[in-house]
Amino acid sequence: MALDRIDLADIHAPERLAARLHAQLGPVTTAVPVVEIARGLDISEVRIDRFDGFEGMLLTDRVRSDGVILANCRYGHQRARFTIAHELGHFLLERHEVSSETGFRCTPRDMRETREGRRELRQEAEANRFAIELLAPPAMFDRHLSRDPDLQDAQHLRRALDLSREACIRRMVERRDEPLAAIWSQEGRVRYSIRGDAFPYLALNKNDPLPKISQAFKVVSKGDRGITTFRETHAAAWTRRPEIEMFEQTRVGRDGHAVTLLWADLPPDADEEDDGGLPELGAPGFR
Ligand SMILES: [Zn+2]
């Protein structure tokens, strides 16, 4: 694949970098060929294997003359694709400083870092931003979205983009206009959660049990695999805003894993309302 790395130089915003790369690629009709793209941009080797102790690694030098990417497929090939895109982000985002003498070494947690505080965190957040914009650009993603939010969309997206369900749901929360949040749980306990900008503060922490008055608690306790329809729920189960209308939908998967999508029906000006300066509790704080 012939790609022009010079054309991508000096772009420090991950969204712009991914958009420029897509402009070089032209229309993509299959899942984004991330390995071929990496090889076309001076990555001499992409090794996908079951590794211990890290999710992804980029072996390179400070000036990035070339690189080797290692991606862990222990959690599936779709996650490995995201990891390759993340490492390619570190490679192309020239301001990213190597984390060791041999390059970058990234953990599963790094793969969903969204904070922008310290440099190390910001680099991980930017690599993730680049990865999702590369693998699920708006033009390829949005056309799979139904009129209303629906976890079923993640099934189609997963196949079309060859991306993990988790990454598709995160992207859905981000791309849709409705105030949405998603909570991943295992054996009835919260693993982590994310919320869109307009969704109220989520009063949940990692390892908290799913709220007993939620629909999610009921379906997870029953343990039948599948996707529920959206049903009205008590906003007080999930937030400190008992007065708002809220709906939830849950997908129960294998091994006690579940994901719940929340949809808040906010009164007209509510998105302008100050939520009292409560601390930000996005995905990362839950680990
Ligand atoms: Zn990283």
Automatic annotation (TrEMBL):
It comes from Maritimibacter alkaliphilus HTCC2654. Residues 267-287 are annotated as: Disordered. InterPro entries: IrrE_HExxH (IPR010359), Rad_response_metalloprotease (IPR052345). Coiled coil: none annotated. Residues 66-171 form the IrrE N-terminal-like domain. Residues 268-277 have a biased composition (Acidic residues). This is IrrE N-terminal-like domain-containing protein. Residues 278-287 have a biased composition (Low complexity).
